[in-house]
């Protein structure tokens, strides 16, 4: 039973519980009209302490398509945070008004702290470079949809593997499945952090290899998860400029790949996937975006304990 639970990181839920959410998302995607108004009278609060387009709009669209309502802020300057209100007090206050809270925060671990003070289910919409669990749930759903399974896969993760919270979350989630092989493709400066390798990859005896060139390994991949080099995570702009175009997936590179490769990207895209790739049937990233709304609809329903229309 997921009613009343928080969703702070993917490991909060068992594989069976994650499947439960994904199965509901698939049902919603197949027949969205059956889920209109299931959240009528329910209120979602969105607390975005960090800019977002896709994630915030996706949650808002999800709640509105379920018949619920949305309140919140898209940047802290428009809230009492600008007056110095603590996260603890904001959570308690907003929880008094709403039925469920979605929060994005630039500080790693902020949702873990916030869940100690919430009266209602809390969903982590991203905390610094740490976790992005609803994106991970979307990624799992899209991988399952594209490949028909979540086991026995070779997954390439390419780009910013140091600061990319979506990468870290996805590796953690996929580590629960069998026969998963990770190919980590990045410049040395943006490799998966040493502590993460020690605690997650090596700590769980996961199979992984590190490469610098995408061309060397793309023929082996079942999934290619591209990421942008994130300017906002760099302290030195010169480093960002030097590394920002390290990888560009184009039609020529795709010629080396399997016919059933699925290319994913959490978006926003900058230059790391050429526009010409968009029309390739192996490009799944815009389907992935839409899947995010259905996954969030399912998660909201499960945490609120509401059922489909009769």
Describe the structure.
The chain has 310 residues and is of the alpha/beta class. A five-stranded parallel sheet has the order 7-6-5-8-9, with helices on one face. A four-stranded parallel sheet has the order 2-1-3-4, with helices on both faces. Helix 5 crosses helix 6 and helix 5 crosses helix 10. The longest helix has 20 residues. The mean pLDDT is 90.
Can you describe this structure in just a few lines?
The chain is 35% helix and 15% strand. The protein is built from 10 helices and 9 strands.
What descriptors fit this protein?
five-stranded parallel beta sheet, 310 residues, single chain, four-stranded parallel beta sheet, alpha/beta
Unreliable parts:
none
Query: Whole-Å distance between the termini?
Result: 20 Å
Strand portion = 15-25%
The shape is globular
H/E element sequence: HEHEHEHEHEHEHEEHHEH
Question: Main sheet?
Answer: 5 strands, parallel
Helix-strand layout with pairing:
Layout: H1 15-30, E1 43-48, H2 54-65, E2 69-73, H3 87-97, E3 100-105, H4 110-114, E4 122-127, H5 133-147, E5 153-158, H6 165-174, E6 180-185, H7 194-201, E7 207-211, E8 223-226, H8 237-243, H9 251-254, E9 262-264, H10 285-304
Parallel strand pairs: 1-2, 1-3, 3-4, 5-6, 5-8, 6-7, 8-9
